[in-house]
Protein: glutathione transferase
Amino acid sequence: MKLYHSNGSPNARRVRMLIAEKGLDVELVPVDLGSREQHSNAYLAINPRGVVPALVLDDGTVIGEAPTIMRYLDDASAPPSLYGTTPAEKAVVAMWERRMETEGFAAVMEGVRNAAGGLKGRAVSGLHGYEQIPDLIDRSKQRVANFYDDLEAQLGRSAYVAGDRFSAADITALATVDFATKAFSMPIPEGRSAVKRWYAVVSSRSSATA
Amino acid sequence: MKLYHSNGSPNARRVRMLIAEKGLDVELVPVDLGSREQHSNAYLAINPRGVVPALVLDDGTVIGEAPTIMRYLDDASAPPSLYGTTPAEKAVVAMWERRMETEGFAAVMEGVRNAAGGLKGRAVSGLHGYEQIPDLIDRSKQRVANFYDDLEAQLGRSAYVAGDRFSAADITALATVDFATKAFSMPIPEGRSAVKRWYAVVSSRSSATA
Structure:
């Protein structure tokens, strides 16, 4: 298997962290986002959506979309699973993983894409051009602030995002916090003691360096 | 099992269509979005995110998020699956289902939520209030137009969204087209013959009335 990725892509990092957690043998193939290699004909022949990450299986099957790749790699590999054992357990983890994405990760991404000078005319990922909307920067900040509030409440109820065990939901939550901190100047706010306790634990896992 | 839903919710319709396709025995419990019952204390005790749909299993486990519920119901029920048989097949369907959502369904939703008079101050679903951003209406229209272009290309390559068989990806695509038509005045554009051929086929399935 090959994972087309970029060190600078937080979506690719979600997949790399899962690979590291599970100790999977996946070849990493860098795609240079700086020169827009993801929009080159060579890369579009692999992933027509023009984004990283993309996983190419040994039979040539291409799987795109970070959470889909994460779930596939977990489903196709030996236990322990980062989603759970039963369909219901997997659904609860997938639900939380998705909430971390839609309420956290996607909010940071929207803020960054509508703010960054280098992304003018490319405010939505993919091949289609869209102008930036400056009002989205503030809305994204509000959403990320609310994400931290909600995460504090959830981590007050359980040790990890989806319950008592580390799961794929923690991977996306950690990627979100680091992305918000580095690219959107929104680190964990003061007073969020449950988030800080959780962050100390999950960021010290060896997968966090992936 | 009980599905908390609303007839007016296109996200709930995605789940109802999957239930109908698989012939599952799920009790439908209506939630009145008009009176904001989804934000009532009684409903928040079921789904703290304050949105429909939510699936409650017989043991009390709550599963939220439309695509997560769809995948759970498919995983937990007898074949034939609406995702496929192998992990790779399931991943390819899940990838396409997600693309239909992020590039189509979510674009329509964003346009509607930022345009509708009744949704002032509630431009993002959930419990947190966000003001509408009028510039998002035009951007959403551009995104939906591009969605139709891309769907035309894909359906020129295969009979259904994710290949030669009807799948969960077609459910989300059909829900998107009907939502765009009814709530965003963006029916299938002229000249999209592959989309129209596909639409005639999938909209005639009995599940389309769900």
